[in-house]
């Protein structure tokens, strides 16, 4: 088959011949029609992922055909029995196993789900990893209630936009942050009540005055800005952290945490029950994922460059001729 | 009436005449027989509490008599309607209002509870603030389940010892930390499965090897040692913070937090439903609070000195001749 292959950490991605997948017991082979990028894929191309080996086909998000039916793939493999945390065998589709940026993939049958009828292949491919991460963070972890006020940091990223759409569909009031005025404006066009540019001095105080504090904050940055987010929480507020792109949190105030009964909740990915619930939620609310752009697989490197530069608003999709 | 009075931040505490309490609507006057110290009282004597005025009678913990019945007092005043967090009117008995280290106190009738039959006045007086804080932290916040493994830092403190006794009564396996080998040994005598001295290099690795990690950690130190505690949590583990005696947390690792689905939960005091449940739990399990020592009210300064020096194992009680 043809696949988007990373031959080494230095080489650009290119479409090459790659061995066809051989399904193991319980697995099926899906003909892929589209994939989508995650930061995880960019890190893989930098050779930074633990356990990486070359050549490798990246890609955790995929949609395609199985027995003539349109399907999308749950990238969570071997979560285990405990809904509260993944077990030791847990891994994500795309590494160490062969990923979705290829014509075909072998995957456990239980990871294959029907695509909601209102979605195109490209939209469906945009969902899996980001939608699952957002769903668990917002519902299983933050336990969002209708009417609550939610702040989403770094709007424009794939997960952040799913959180945004899910929170709006669940009846929350949603605010956003970004370093880009344009991305904030786009979020407001999509129904955000307001937003703040976290590069501007005093942004958190102004946002607090405007919005009055938040029940729920969903963040993937951590880093030195985290205490600003904490200060925006209402008493008993929940902040869910699903990433750490800006590094360690350098100074956490315990008084604020205990006196205001705050909750800092780590979250990553999700289990198969959450994946099924997420797809049903998207179906019920007729949510169309925010697709930033669509590239042909042969131009995969350009898609990766766009993501590495942080230019996207929504998911970057790869079209796979099949 | 006679009361233990702090005339200024510099003066030692002394028993003096103080105006008799005048009950407002909904309040009753309780004849106090015993009080108990909390760190809060020590901070008050340092003049460091916001809103302090002199002269002041400290004391949040008290037990005594109302209409011939032995009673103890819930020190949580005006929590509000939200069980998840106290409202803006919330305050703790003892400041700004007159505290329990006196012959009499005026308090809302709803804050007066019957003393379980197996307890002395001195034991009952040891319960309120510490028992309430421990109960909320361990059950409402950490949601402790039977058979779980619990680590309690700083054993010897009043709250820590209530957490210890409650966790054991609820069927947990309990480990402790302290900077004192003697306090660890006492906890093991009381049923702790093990303990570690957090002043010793490499303590957390050894404790992890011994115990295998913890479902729940209850801490009031925060500070530079917090990441060591985090590393001892099992996946999906909960760490409840109810104080910050060692200051800000300088370096929190977001990867550890999200990948391991961890929970950092702030907790302080508790509402009246939790107080009632806590007293019922103590009654049901025939728990006798750990009383470190009993001082007469006239020797109150010595009791405060003992607490300020961190020598105690359990609650320091004041006996009030009445």
Query: H/E order of the elements of chain A?
Result: EEEHEEEEEEHHEHEHEHEHEHEHEHE
E-strand count of chain A: 17
Output the CATH class name of the largest domain in chain A.
Alpha Beta
Compute the number of structural domains of chain A.
2
How would you describe what is shown here?
The structure is a homodimer of 322-residue chains. The first copy, chain A, is α/β, with parallel strands linked by helices. In chain A, 28% of the residues lie in helices and 26% in strands. In chain A, the strands form 4 sheets. In chain A, strands 3, 4, 5, 8, 9, 16 and 17 form a 7-stranded mixed β-sheet that branches. A 6-stranded parallel β-sheet of chain A has the order 12-11-10-13-14-15, with helices on both faces. In chain A, strand 1 (2-5) and strand 2 form a beta hairpin. The first copy, chain A, is globular, with a radius of gyration of 19 Å. The model of chain A has no long low-confidence stretch (mean pLDDT 95). At the A-B interface, strand 14, helix 8 and strand 15 of A face strand 14, helix 8 and strand 15 of B.
How would you concisely characterize the structure shown here?
The structure is a homodimer of 322-residue chains. Helix content of chain A is 28%, strand content 26%. Chain A is α/β, with parallel strands linked by helices.
Provide tags for this entry.
2 domains; 26% strand; homodimer; six-stranded parallel beta sheet; seven-stranded mixed beta sheet; 10 helices; Quinone Oxidoreductase, Chain A, domain 1; 322 residues; Rossmann fold; alpha/beta; 17 strands
């Amino acid at each position: 088959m043809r696949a988007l292959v990373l031959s080494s950490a230095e080489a650009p991605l290119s479409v090459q011949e790659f061995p066809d997948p051989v399904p193991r017991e319980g697995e099926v082979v899906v003909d892929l029609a589209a994939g989508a990028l995650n930061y995880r894929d960019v890190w893989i191309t930098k050779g930074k992922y633990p356990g990486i080996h070359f050549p490798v086909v990246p890609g955790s998000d995929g949609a395609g055909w199985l027995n003539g039916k349109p399907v999308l793939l749950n990238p969570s493999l071997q979560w285990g029995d405990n809904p509260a945390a993944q077990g030791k065998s847990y891994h994500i589709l795309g590494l160490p196993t062969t990923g979705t940026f290829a014509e075909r993939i072998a995957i456990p049958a239980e990871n294959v789900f029907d695509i909601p009828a209102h979605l195109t292949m490209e939209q469906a491919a945009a969902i899996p990893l980001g939608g699952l991460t957002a769903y668990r963070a917002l519902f299983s972890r933050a336990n969002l209630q209708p009417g609550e006020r939610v702040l989403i940091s770094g709007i424009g990223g794939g997960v952040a936009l799913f959180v945004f759409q899910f929170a709006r569909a669940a009846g929350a009031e949603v605010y956003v942050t970004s370093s880009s005025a344009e991305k904030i404006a786009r979020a407001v066009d999509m129904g955000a009540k307001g937003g703040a540019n976290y590069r501007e001095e005093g942004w958190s105080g102004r946002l607090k005055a405007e919005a009055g504090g938040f029940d729920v904050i969903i963040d993937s940055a951590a880093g030195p800005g985290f205490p600003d987010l904490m200060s925006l929480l209402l008493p008993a507020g929940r902040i869910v952290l699903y990433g750490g792109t800006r590094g360690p949190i350098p100074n956490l105030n315990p008084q604020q945490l205990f006196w205001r009964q705050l909750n800092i909740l780590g979250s990553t990915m999700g289990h198969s029950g959450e994946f099924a619930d997420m797809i049903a939620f998207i179906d019920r609310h007729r949510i169309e994922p925010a697709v930033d752009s669509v590239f042909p697989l042969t131009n995969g490197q350009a898609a990766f460059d766009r993501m590495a530069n942080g230019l996207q608003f929504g998911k970057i999709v790869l079209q796979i001729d099949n």
